[in-house]
Amino acid sequence: MAEKIQKFFLPTLAVVVFLMIWQYAASHYTPDLFPGPRDVFLAILELIKVGRLWKDITISLTRFSIAYSLAVTCAIPLGLFLGRCRPCHRAIDPVVQLLRPISPIAWFPLAVLWFGIGNTPAIFIIFMAAFFPMLLATISAVRSIPAINYKVANNFGAKPALVFLGIIIPAAFPGIMTGLHIALGTAWIHLVAGEMLGADSGLGYLIIDARNFLRTDQIMAGMLLVGILGLLLNKLITAGEQFINKKWGINAQQ
Amino acid sequence: MVNGRTPKIRLLNAGKSFHTSSEAAHVALAAGNLDIYEGEFVCLVGPSGCGKSTVINLMAGFEQPTEGSVMIDGKPVLKPDPDRIMIFQDYGLFPWKTALDNILFGLKCRGISKAEAKKRALAALSGVGLSAWAQRHPHELSGGMKQRVALARALAVEPSVLFMDEPFAALDAFTRLHLQDELLELRKKRKITIIFVTHDLDEAVYLGERIVLMAPNPGRFENNITIDLPYPRDRTDKHFDRYRKELFEAFDLVHKEAGRIRKEAEGIQEEGSGI
Question: Can you list the domains of chain A with their CATH numbers?
Answer without folding.
Answer: 49-248 (1.10.3720.10)
